[in-house]
Amino acid sequence: MPARDNSKSKETLTALRARLERDLERIEQDLENAQASMAQDINNEDRSAEIAAMAIERDMDLSTEEKIREMIESVDTALAAIEDGSYGLCESCGETIPDGRLEIVPYATRCVECQRRQEK
Ligand SMILES: [Zn+2]
């Protein structure tokens, strides 16, 4: 079997990782700002609605932050797999992950079927 050409995937993954890092930085900045203004306004009754809204936004940022961290982890796993030659193989069943899937989800570590089973 000819070796898979992973240069394109590597490029995509590296770019994706850089973007995720930027997103993460922005969200961390947002969180810091929210934390600071919430600490300031916590005793101000007039602004309680605003503070509640900020708290919701902060929670959303926190879950986004978590998702981005998970994605960075997946991207790193994929990049490591490219290095050791296991990229594009499903980590559950060992089958080749179709190119079409890798084009859409370059950090996929499972085939669609195993992913679906995992998410259940
Ligand atoms: Zn599989």
Quick gist of this model?
The chain is elongated, with a radius of gyration of 20 Å.
The class by helix and strand makeup works out as mainly alpha
Runs in which pLDDT lies below 50 for 5 or more consecutive residues are none
Largest sheet: none
Order of helices and strands: HHHH
Shape: elongated
Binned strand content: under 5%
Query: What is the radius of gyration computed over CA atoms, rounded to a whole number of angstroms?
Result: 20 Å
| Cα end-to-end separation | 33 Å
Residue-averaged pLDDT: 89
Q: Tell how many strands the DSSP assignment holds.
A: 0
Instruction: List cofactors, ions and other ligands.
Output: zinc ion
Total count of helical runs of at least 4 residues: 4
What percentage of residues falls in helices of 4 or more residues? Answer: over 70%
Relevant terms:
mainly alpha, 4 helices, elongated, binds zinc ion
